[in-house]
Amino acid sequence: MPGSLKVLACYLMWAFLVLYWPLFGAMDPLAVLSFRIIFSMLFCLIVMLILGQGPAILGLMKNKRQMLFLLLAGITITVNWGGYIIAVMTGRVIDASLAYYMYPIFSIVLGFFIYKERLRPLQWVAFVLAVLGVTVPIIAYGQVPVFAIIIGTSFAFYGAIKKQITASGMLSIFMETLMVVPVALIYLVAFSHLEGLTPRDILLIPTMGVVTTVPLLFFAVGMKDTSLSLAGVLMYINPTIQLLLGVFIMGEEFTTTHAWMFAFVWSGVALFLADGFRERKKESETK
């Protein structure tokens, strides 16, 4: 299978997860998040032990600098997962899809502030349009699209932190989730109410590790021979499917305010992609 198809498979799996998390409607979203953390860690551990990567785990634990960045990544991805799960389980799929349209724009601006990466004029315009899109519901309803902002910005910060991590994708996810497993366990034991779990829920809970890790494996393998530009364009399939599922399958209302909000964000995305294509064309012409 070509690398680009593996990356596409990853994005499709991520998109259809909006239909997966509501299956745990008998549980509170933070309990779902806690189980996701625990079983993602366990699934990664099992796969790595089967592949004989035990020594790599021990070696990574001796690197204090890497462990610090892995802790930060673990905290950030927990916020991202938590925001996404809460949004999907409480009928805010449209907000979740908006987040992943905005993420690449937020990510590149974050690179400007953290890594001093140069931003071109059109990229700044794209960022301004995305911010205007977020302000639309604030002006219309006095409501901040909290989940869109939390999911989008946390994923952007996660990407920025991951640039400092040298471990492989599977090993990194294992360590990131291992770092926050104690918090997940404390929540499940002390705060969650799991009396209403059905046999189906108990059978489904371990699959959280599979649905979290398998797309990441497809992405890690597929990116080895897929250009960043193609991967970036394909990524927008994910929020597009999420939006369609939210409106046509899960019955969320797409209001006039949503239309204005997405119009600004989509305009920013279009400028962002056009600028990227123009720069790559310049680079190819100078070679």
Quick summary:
The chain is an all-alpha fold and 287 residues long.
Relevant terms:
membrane, EmrE-like, mainly alpha, cell membrane, 287 residues
Question: What can be said about the biggest beta sheet?
Answer: none
Give unreliable regions as ranges. none
**Overall pLDDT level:** 88
**Helical coverage, percent range:** over 70%
In total, the number of strands is: 0
Q: Looking at the structure, what is the overall shape?
A: globular
User: How much strand?
Assistant: under 5%
Give the SSE order as H and E letters: HHHHHHHHHHHHH
The number of helical segments is: 13
Structural class: mainly alpha
Number of domains: 1
Rg over CA atoms: 19 Å
Task: Report, as a whole number of angstroms, the end-to-end distance.
Answer: 30 Å
Transmembrane segments: 7-25, 37-60, 67-86, 98-115, 122-140, 146-161, 173-190, 202-221, 233-251, 257-277
Pfam families: EamA (PF00892)
Family: Belongs to the EamA transporter family.
Keywords: Cell membrane, Membrane, Transmembrane, Transmembrane helix, Transport
